[in-house]
Amino acid sequence: MTQVRLAFAVLFVATVVACGPAAPSAGTSPTASAAASASAGPTKGGVLRIGYGAEVDNLNAFTSQFLTDIELTMVEGLIVSNDKNEYIPVLAKQVPTVANGLVKTRADGKLELTWPLQQGVMWHDQVHEFTAEDVCFTWKYVVSTGSEVYNRNSYLPISDCRVQDKYTAVMVWDKPSAIYNGLFEAILPKYMLDGKDIVKYDGYNRSPVGTGPFIFSEWKAGEYVRVKRNPNYWRGTQYPYADEVVFRFIPDINTRLNAVKSGEVDFAQMTPTQVKDVKDLPNFNLTLVQQNSWQHFDMSIKTERGAKIFGDKNVRIALFQLIDKKTIVDGVLEGTVQVADTVAPTTSPYYNPNVKKYTYDQTAAKKLLDDAGWKVGADGIREKAGEKLSLTALLSSADAIGKLYWQVIQQNMKSAGVDIKIDTKDAAARSQVWRSGQWEIQISRWVLPADPSVTGLYSCKGSNNMTGFCDAAMDEQMTLSDQELDPAKRKAYLFKAQELLAENAFSLPIYYNVNPIVTSKKLGNFKASGTNLGSFWNVFEWYLNK
What is the pTM of this model? Predict the structure, then answer.
């Protein structure tokens, strides 16, 4: 399941677990945090056991195609998004704004953003200090060609980063950007990575060094990642409360459910079909996290065969009309999610209800395929110019729900003369194939931050446009929205971009994701978040009652 992290919807946690005292914000000073925690009296020690859905591809927060849950225990950025869909400072003392004087327009029309940084923060080696040099080094890597950073496009308007002093970084933006405050969610250690090919450097990608509350300890392939307590954490030595966190890879959903029921794990992400199985467990709380995320059906035109088949808009529309969203939502997902028709959830201020909608319609789909020259052959499969309309769907072996809805889609498409084969790969291998564009069809999801931008997903040169589809008019609207600081004008641009995406039939939204998380009733200070940075944003405050 693709878990790419860019920017668009604003959503909120639907159900919040009340398990422990209120925590200080991540932007609070270490002294204030210490006082608040002391009065609340969280328990120190223990091993926090996480039942994780799939083994990750790597532990580089910028290039991994998975949520940064594991990385956020070790690696910190200038900012993070919290449980209220707000960006709050971490390694930065403040998020720059016009109001606080840290965003200024120069005489040449360019913007200067000044980032004041926390002082005395040490990297895990306890030898090197985090400074503005690390911030500018990170920027230089992100914007470099071939960095494979998931949201590289969002950083490209930054034309310069300079070290004003040891604890101040100044960035120059060539044009306004409405999404600047959601960037730099991780910072790389210059002392370790300078001169390295970071994309291929396993010395970091499989054992990252950060400034966070936990230190990398072990990655046992196929089994788990273990992190241990950072005894010199900069927020105060009282943090983190837990001694260790172990992310145990349990891709099979039934095995994960049994691990919860037997008490082998303290935290696990379940599927919507398992809500009924976990909602009344006596020793666990259930949180239904409304995610900034939607499931979508995509086609790649990056192969010669894909371009030939999916380059025809009528074929794309026909395939859309053969996907029964309602049956998937009400049947496979048991009514726990909503049908999606666009990339913005219904709760978002950027949701456009008037986009073109594609409903299940076998008759209309058959006619479109007939008119496009795809005729049903003797074996029941459509063909054109000697080419069979037999398509291969890329699927992660960890995607238990995907296996179920593809059965529905296979059956519906078969009755219309379209043959679907399933190519199942482990999660990391699926991600690699997806990046290459050498696939035909797939259903996956975007998991996005709090700020709205889909440019990296759908623009002609988008860093996460793995389909190859491209439309200049849509590019223009997305670019304008990224540069527009007036919310009303920005909304109009994003509305138009959504309309063009639907009209072009480049991607079919299917449903909006809900993430059911079960947590032990012993776990305190857990605050779920539906953004791309996940629910581990305040892991330093989590504790386990004895």
Answer: 0.70
